[in-house]
Amino acid sequence: MPRRSIDLMVDTDPAWVDVIMENFDEFLCDHANCERKASALALSMVVKYPDRTRIIPPLIRIAQEELAHFRSVYELMEARGLKILADRQDPYVQQLVAVLRHDREHRFLDRMLISSLIECRGAERFRLISERLEDPLLKRFYRDLAASEAKHGHLFVDLVLNYFPPSSVYPRLTDLAANEAHIIRQLQWRPALH
Fold first, then answer.
1. Domain CATH code at residue 75
2. Would you say residue 2 has pLDDT above 80?
3. Does 122 fall in a domain?
4. What gap in Å lies between CA 131 and CA 128, rounded to an integer?
5. pLDDT in tens, 34-54
6. What is the pLDDT of residues 108-147, one digit of tens each?
7. Phi-psi region at 62: left, alpha or beta (left = phi > 0; alpha = psi -120 to 50)
8. Within 13 Å of residue 71, how many CA atoms lie on the same side as its CB?
9. 1 inside domain
10. Contacting residues for 185 by C-beta, under 8 A, at least 6 apart
11. Taking the model in full, what pTM does it have?
């Protein structure tokens, strides 16, 4: 997958990982919910934009990959005696979605670009987690997830470039990335992906 997204404008503070390592079971429960929601989002885009035929096969693949990630995280949870938690609002995603424009064309563009940023942030954070884990299987699992999320981040931009010129895509992606950086700086750390 060619690199299509842009760099995140702010790095996650490495100390964020301390919160994750100290509350790893709680993090796993949140992580499972994130993977489930990512799969549902990809399918919802297929349903909402059936006329955008170039996005359909790739988004079905993303939905399947995210569902496989969900299954893998759930298996880790089962091994630890953890149960799926009721869904909670994600303040990071809520704030990102708050800037979606409302007309159909711009909303499609914004949803795809915000999805790219969420995947890129997930890739960065999974990499940070993998670097701190000592268990070799978990380390490899999160390193592989980081690579998968990065690929998805670029794919969302690649797909939207089928429908909008780079001169429309990249300025908007830059604006959304600046907003995402502001959100990341303000977020309270908790044992969650975001």
1. 1.20.1260.10
2. no
3. yes
4. 5
5. 999 999 999 999 999 999 999
6. 999 999 999 999 999 999 999 999 999 999 999 999 999 9
7. alpha
8. 6
9. no
10. 10
11. 0.96
Best CA proximity match to 82, nearest among 33, 141, 144, 138: 33
Mean pLDDT of the chain: 96
> What's the confidence (pLDDT) of residue 124?
98
| pLDDT score recorded for residue 88 | 83
Q: Is residue 125 part of a domain?
A: yes
DSSP state letters, 51-67: T-GGGHHHHHHHHHHHH
What 3-state DSSP class applies to 90?
Answer: coil
Which domain, by its residues, includes 131?
Answer: 16-186
DSSP 115-145: HHHHHHHHHHHHHHHHHH--SHHHHHHHHHH
Tokens standing for residue 2: 């060619």
Q: How many structural domains comprise the chain?
A: 1
From residue 171, alpha-carbon distances to 130, 150, 158 in Å are 32, 20, 15
